[in-house]
Write a structure and sequence with these properties.
With 437 residues, the protein is an alpha/beta fold. It folds into 2 domains: 6-225, Tandem AAA-ATPase domain (Rossmann fold, 3-Layer(aba) Sandwich), CATH 3.40.50.10810; 238-435, Rossmann fold (3-Layer(aba) Sandwich). Helix content is 40%, strand content 19%. The chain has a 6-stranded parallel sheet. Strands 11-16-15-12-14-13 form a 6-stranded parallel sheet, with helices on both faces.
């Protein structure tokens, strides 16, 4: 069994004293070991862990490393498996001592079937919760784990709070808090939003950020434990923008006839769907242009003494350009098609082989359950419109054994719409940090 850090021991004591709770420690702080230590402390035998596809192998290994008990009633499944009716029926046919919802931000919207499978179906805008077939109602204890519990805006907390701590949504006249049991009341209280008319028949709500964050944080006090990497002695990365110079002709070729006004409006609103619609083809072309410029910049960094680097990207074509341009420096990596064995092999090679200097990380595939801390430099060749995904990916190069200051750079095409969009989207992070302080 590994020697737990003091923060893991304290966290396990905190978690084991609560039937329902959110452990929101940042990535690399040690949530998995903390949760298993807490489960041992409570002598929980029948345990259901819901995690990501890549996290299943991590949890199986972790129970062998961290637990002093042999459990015959341990089940580890992926979030996607909750959409299988047969699997759900099997899980609901018994009662669990403990339900661990790893990466619990996967249940951030009642509009998703997986969220309904875990927390139930809201009725009357959440005034009532139909939970007879909800997993949480079939477990004596429910612990949520997520380093990014608010992937987009404060409304992401509503499903978890409505199911696990509904009393915290009720009115508190002594503090002048209104009742926010219904979703719209919660959203109106803690989110800045405006309606956006799509056509004569359809209007949608665009959430632009948060408000009353301190009040929401106070409602969560005692339900949430969050330690940052800095709290446990891990230095946070330094974030920078890396402008990449390209010719005006190349910029015109990439951007074409893009509606800059509409794109910037969507960026200011945090409207990721609208951004995807406007920037769909542009994102791939921009990524390819940046990849070619990044290759030249990385070669310069290696010639100036850089040992290793992680390059994060989204489109497979971008990854192929990076691989072809940097192959002589020793390249490994993972994407969405990588098997668990391939993930582990790529991780271990990058950690231990000094001749393997480049890790190509497809953002969603490499954002969780992987240690890339043999590098202290990570560049986002492409960025995504999700603060959660960017945050998760950036913290892969940090951990307790990282002795160097880490740097995360977001690559942008100089004087382009890509540069303006990335700057506008950064404001979404501010509201999230306020709630989670």
């Amino acid at each position: 069994m590994p020697d737990p850090y003091p923060t893991q021991i304290d966290g396990a004591r905190w978690l084991s004293s609560r039937r329902r709770a959110l452990l929101a420690d940042q990535p690399r702080v040690g949530k998995t070991g903390t949760a298993i230590l807490a489960a041992d402390d409570r002598f929980h035998d029948s345990i259901l862990v819901v995690t990501t596809a890549s996290g299943r192998a991590v949890w199986r290994r972790a129970f062998g490393q961290w637990s002093v008990f042999r459990r015959d009633n341990l089940r580890i499944i992926g979030w996607a498996e909750l959409n299988n009716l047969k699997t759900r029926a099997e899980l609901l046919s018994r009662h669990w001592d403990l339900l661990i919802l790893d990466e619990s931000h996967y249940g951030a919207s009642f509009g998703a079937k997986r969220t309904q499978a875990v927390y139930g179906i809201p009725d009357g805008d959440g005034e009532h919760l139909l939970n007879a077939k909800a997993l949480y109602a079939h477990a004596s204890n429910v612990w949520c784990l997520s380093g990014t519990p608010i992937p987009h805006d404060p409304s992401n907390l509503y499903p978890m709070m409505r199911a696990l701590c509904p009393e915290r949504l009720r009115a508190n006249p002594s503090k002048d808090w209104p009742d926010v049991t219904k979703f719209e009341d919660f959203r109106d209280r803690y989110c800045r939003w405006r309606p956006k008319k799509l056509n004569n028949w359809r209007t949608i709500i665009v959430i632009m950020g948060g408000k009353n964050e301190a009040e929401l944080a106070e409602r969560l006090d005692g339900f949430v434990l969050r330690r940052t990497q800095q709290d446990v002695g891990i230095r946070p990365p330094v974030y920078e923008t890396l402008p990449l110079a390209v010719t005006p002709a190349m910029l015109r070729q990439v951007e074409g006839n893009i509606d800059r006004v509409a794109v910037l409006e969507a960026a200011r609103e945090g409207n990721t769907k609208s951004l995807d619609m406007h920037l769909g083809p542009l994102r791939r072309l921009t990524g390819e242009a940046k990849a070619r410029a990044v290759i030249e910049a990385v070669v310069d960094e290696f010639e100036n003494g850089l040992d290793k680097i992680v390059l994060a990207y989204w489109h497979k074509d971008v990854g192929k350009i990076l691989l072809d341009g940097l192959v002589k420096y020793g390249v490994t990596g993972i994407d969405g098609s990588s098997s668990p064995a391939a993930r582990d092999g790529a991780e271990q090679r990058f950690l231990n082989d000094p001749e393997c200097r480049v890790f190509l990380a497809q953002i969603e595939a490499a954002g969780e359950a992987i240690d890339l801390s043999s590098a202290a430099m990570l560049w986002f060749v492409e960025s995504v419109f999700s603060p959660r995904s960017m945050s998760q990916m950036s913290l892969r190069i940090t951990n307790h054994s990282q002795a160097r200051q880490c740097f995360v750079r977001v690559c942008v095409l100089e004087n382009s719409i890509d540069e303006a969009v990335n700057e506008s989207l950064m404001r979404l992070w501010a509201s999230i940090r306020e709630v989670l302080k």
